[in-house]
Amino acid sequence: MRSVPTIDLSAYRADEFEADHFETLALACKDMGFFLLKGHGLDELISEVFAESKSFFSEEKEIFLLFMATALFRIITFCYVLVKQQRAKMTMSSRINRNETSSEVG
């Protein structure tokens, strides 16, 4: 079983990123499709994001459900608007096609 390639960005951050580093990155993308990063300098930010996420999901159940219901409502509304716009485009397209066909016949 192959292991996921790890790309160390500390050399890039120190302006020491060589051509072979880019080759390693390209091979990781080509062969595996993804890779792990280390030396990116975002450890503190990642820790803060995980802490905020943990805090959010440990809130009272009612607050979380209210948030999820609001998000679900927004998604449903967005999809409804998209479908409505798509139908309007299809209706307009069929009207144009009918007009073109009737003008060719007459």
Number of helices: 4
* Count of the domains: 2
Proportion of beta-strand residues: 5-15%
The share of residues in helices is over 70%
Judged by helices, strands and strand pairing, the structural class is mainly alpha
Query: How confident overall, as mean pLDDT?
Result: 82
Order of helices and strands: EHHEHH
Residue windows where pLDDT falls under 50 for at least 5 positions:
none
Count the beta strands.
2
Largest sheet: 2 strands, parallel
Give an account of the 3D structure.
Strands 1-2 form a two-stranded parallel ribbon. It has helices at residues 10-13, 19-32, 43-57, 61-105; strands at residues 6-8, 36-38. Helix content is 74%, strand content 6%. It has 106 residues and is mainly alpha-helical. The protein is flat and about 70 Å long. The longest helix is centred in the C-terminal third of the chain and has 45 residues, at 61-105. The chain has 2 domains: 1-58, no CATH class; 60-106.
List keywords for this structure.
106 residues; mainly alpha; 2 domains; two-stranded parallel ribbon; 4 helices; 6% strand
Summarize the topology.
Blueprint: E1 6-8, H1 10-13, H2 19-32, E2 36-38, H3 43-57, H4 61-105
Parallel strand pairs: 1-2
